[in-house]
Amino acid sequence: MKLVLASSNAGKLFELRELLGDAFELHAQSEFGVEDAEETGLSFIENAILKARHASSATGLPALGDDSGLCVDALDGAPGLYSARYSGVHGNAEANIDKLLGNLLGVADDARTARFVCVLAFVRHATDPQPLVAEGIWEGRVLHARRGSNGFGYDPVFFSPAHGCSAAELPTATKNRDSHRGIALAKLRTLLQA
Ligand SMILES: O=c1nc[nH]c2c1ncn2[C@H]1C[C@H](O)[C@@H](COP(=O)(O)OP(=O)(O)OP(=O)(O)O)O1
Ligand SMILES: [Mg+2]
């Protein structure tokens, strides 16, 4: 199946291509000159669907939207939906991490609990009344400083107790198997097969 990924994030594209394998031909929306959708939703679900509709509308192809973020308990769920623009500059992972660590200064380990959330939405066409939607959650803690250089975004400061290391210290295959995105995609595949 040929489909378009409604995202400008190279990290997502890389992970989702690995996860989908050969049965799917996943094209970045940039290949078709599609600009970013405006993320005006109040939930990951709303944004994932509106991204998918936007890309499908512009390309005429089925589309996959990914809206994701890091929700930190000590910050009442922030940066959450606004993870990509937390520092004020969209998509600047270094600045976003600096702001996050600054806001958690002095917060002890056991109060630094957080989770990555990923919602994937698949639409067959732009006005599909039945988008397939799947959510994945990955529990962890925000570290005090960066560790590792794999992955993207907040990976260097996300500690996974289940793995005993940061997300950026995991091989891609392990992150893909156990991450919020990996879990969401496994669920979406089941929905696609139904
Ligand atoms: O596995 C992950 N590892 C580390 N960080 C992650 C992950 N998954 C999401 N994140 C962070 C990156 C970004 O700060 C925000 C997503 O924001 P989000 O709007 O969904 O994506 P984006 O703006 O980068 O690309 P786009 O909207 O074009 O898909 O959460
Ligand atoms: Mg975004």
From TrEMBL:
Gene3D superfamilies: 3.90.950.10. It catalyses: ITP + H2O = IMP + diphosphate + H(+); dITP + H2O = dIMP + diphosphate + H(+); XTP + H2O = XMP + diphosphate + H(+). Pfam families: Ham1p_like. Mg(2+) binds at E38, D67. The active site is at D67. It is an enzyme of class 3 (hydrolase). Substrate binds at S7, S8, N9, A10, G11, K12, S68, F152, G153, Y154, D155, K175, H180, R181. GO terms for cellular component: cytosol. Its EC number is 3.6.1.66. InterPro entries: dITP/XTP_pyrophosphatase (IPR020922), ITPase-like_fam (IPR029001), RdgB/HAM1 (IPR002637). One of its GO terms (biological process) is nucleotide metabolic process. Transmembrane segments: none annotated. Keywords: Hydrolase, Magnesium, Metal-binding, Nucleotide metabolism, Nucleotide-binding. One of its GO terms (molecular function) is ribonucleoside triphosphate phosphatase activity. Binds 1 Mg(2+) ion per subunit. SUPFAM superfamilies: ITPase-like. HAMAP family: Non_canon_purine_NTPase. Homodimer. Belongs to the HAM1 NTPase family. This is dITP/XTP pyrophosphatase. The gene is rdgB.
